[in-house]
User: Which sequence fits this backbone?
């Protein structure tokens, strides 16, 4: 037993940690692009009516109703085919790029729902009050509505980040050498001998990261609530 | 390359034949997960001394690790153990004789149980304590109070969460493809690799998943409104 733990800690863990930056890179980049896209989607679904709103709504339904694996395969295999029709050749893009594109599109759908519900949860009276003292639309948004919406959204944002981190574990299926990809490489190298130990270490790494994310989220929720004393 | 409609006509029925497996995985795992989740939720609510810590760690682990990792753990750890136990009892099993579907269901059930236990716990705790006290006051036992008074009210609160979790489970069954279970994703990959019709095949798979999710979403909404039928909605 002691030898198993020694092997795990001494050999498996360092090898897997080397692949950790890729996992984090995918998560952060997907979060950044996804947030930008989500803001766009939320704005469209809140303000427009008709075709634009239908497109946004259809987009969210698609990315929330299909498995991440299907989305990954669709974009990794399908996008090059479609772009070849338009004469663009992207056959030498890295697998990480496709993974980031897929996760950005995916997380944008979930984030836009979070943002939309948070925005709608702020009572309209707040915006009316802001207008009544002469603020413009943008000022009302920035100074009054968004801070309150953000406080409502924080727990859901934290959850979405954790889910995103766990979703990135699927990227190895399109060839990304993240933690899971490295785990497959190591287990193949040893002729499949230490597979259970490898995946136990993998699960412990993800578990540790998720617990850290949960603590961060709880911390941000706490500081963000410090300023808002309850009015009731 | 134009959109290959002939391929779609041929491949669609083949992919559709994998839908029962997907549904089987999802429904079985949901049911088993509900039983395990209920036990875990009760352990945490009643704060059973030693088991409570174990339950908390279990739920934290399930929610903190990706489904893929859990599936691989089941796939690599279980065969040896199951065969060892079975052979101790005299059955002459080998590791090859057990189907991958078994490990997939174990992994999905445990995964579902972690999330379901949280949904059940929050639903049970959302029912006012006064309801149970009222049940005691007219002479019901704890079991009667739970079954007749608390659980029906808790069920209404829990149902949206159950619906979301079930949809997540349906999407999660696509990962069983990694341990060679012939569900929708596996069949799609096989079909796509025949003629390199990736876009058509994966779009078909996506549409099938969307349809399944849509149907179950409606189903859960109908069940919800049936359970809430006795409540008058307060219209502002």
Assistant:
């Amino acid at each position: 037993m002691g030898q198993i733990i020694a092997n795990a800690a001494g050999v498996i863990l360092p090898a897997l940690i080397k692949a950790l930056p890729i996992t984090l890179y995918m998560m952060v980049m997907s979060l950044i692009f996804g947030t930008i896209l989500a803001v766009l989607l939320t704005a469209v679904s809140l303000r427009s009516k008709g075709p634009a709103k239908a497109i946004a709504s259809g987009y969210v339904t698609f990315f929330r109703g299909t498995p991440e694996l299907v989305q990954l395969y669709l974009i990794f295999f399908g996008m090059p085919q479609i772009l070849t029709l338009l004469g663009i050749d992207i056959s030498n893009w890295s697998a990480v790029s496709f993974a980031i594109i897929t996760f950005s599109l995916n997380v944008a759908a979930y984030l836009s729902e979070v943002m939309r519900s948070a925005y709608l949860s702020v009572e309209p009276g707040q915006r009316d009050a802001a207008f009544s003292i002469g603020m413009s639309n943008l000022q009302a948004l920035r100074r009054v509505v968004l801070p309150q919406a953000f406080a409502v959204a924080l727990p859901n944002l934290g959850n979405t980040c954790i889910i995103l981190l766990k979703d990135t574990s699927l990227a190895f299926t399109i060839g990304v050498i993240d933690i899971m990809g490295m785990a497959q490489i190591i287990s193949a190298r040893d002729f499949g001998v230490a597979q259970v130990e490898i995946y136990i270490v993998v699960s412990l790494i993800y578990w540790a990261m998720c617990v850290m994310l949960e603590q961060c989220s709880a911390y941000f929720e706490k500081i963000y609530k410090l300023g808002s004393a309850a009015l009731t | 390359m134009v959109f290959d409609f002939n391929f779609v006509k041929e491949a669609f029925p083949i992919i559709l034949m994998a839908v029962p497996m997907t549904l089987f995985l999802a429904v079985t795992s949901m049911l088993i997960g509900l039983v395990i989740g209920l036990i875990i939720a009760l352990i945490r609510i009643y704060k059973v001394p030693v088991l409570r810590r174990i339950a908390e760690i279990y739920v934290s682990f399930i929610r903190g690790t990706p489904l893929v990792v859990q599936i691989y753990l089941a796939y690599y750890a279980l065969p040896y153990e199951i065969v060892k136990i079975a052979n101790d009892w005299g059955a002459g099993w080998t590791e090859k004789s057990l189907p991958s579907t078994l490990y997939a269901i174990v992994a999905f059930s445990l995964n579902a149980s972690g999330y379901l236990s949280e949904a059940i716990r929050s639903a049970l705790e959302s029912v006012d304590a006064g309801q149970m006290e009222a049940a005691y006051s007219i002479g019901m036992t704890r079991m009667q109070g739970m079954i007749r008074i608390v659980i029906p009210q808790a069920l209404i609160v829990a149902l949206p969460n159950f619906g979301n979790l079930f949809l997540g489970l349906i999407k999660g069954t696509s990962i069983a493809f990694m341990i060679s279970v012939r569900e929708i994703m596996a069949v799609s990959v096989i079909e796509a690799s025949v003629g390199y019709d990736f876009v058509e095949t994966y779009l078909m798979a996506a549409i099938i998943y969307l349809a399944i999710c849509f149907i179950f979403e409606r189903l859960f909404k109908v069940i919800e409104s049936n359970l809430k039928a006795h409540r008058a909605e307060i219209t502002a």
